[in-house]
Predict the structure.
Amino acid sequence: MVHGIRTVLERVFALGLALLGVLLVAGGLQLLRLGGSPWYAAAGIALLALASLAWRGHAHAGAGYAAFLLATSAWAIWESGSHAWALTARLALPALLGLWFLVPLQPAQPRGTRRWAGFASLAVLAALAGLHMGGAYRPRPVLALPAAAVATGAGEPTEAGDWLALHRSEVAKLRQAAPAAAE
């Protein structure tokens, strides 16, 4: 009975990977037609191959998913740099899905191959958490407004590229906080 439950769980996971793969291929092809990144279509094809391995309970499905997650992480960093939210949008779902490989379903698998994906997922999630924690304590630059804009409460920049247009309530707060700067 336990073997049957293991097989059902592995197949449900494989179907989820396949569905995600189909969605990524379809969306990735549309993105390619619009001149976007080929990564999404390639990632979808990789997930379809991994879904096939997972469906059959192949011993290298975990190692394959770890390689997929490593490649996805490299692409995300190349595309987004160290921007925490952009990386989270690209890596959180693949990393969370990879945690599945930490569930001990088939003890007959070679030691460690299934867990590679799980440990890689934990590493990616820890790195994302670290980026967010580090970003929370990073000093932010103060937006310096031209005195004329503060004085008039203008919602438009006084010169092209001088400052970003602010909502009128923000300008009003600035006028109250620094009336001397408005003169």
Notes: The helical segments are 2-33, 39-55, 61-80, 84-98, 113-136, 147-152, 168-177.
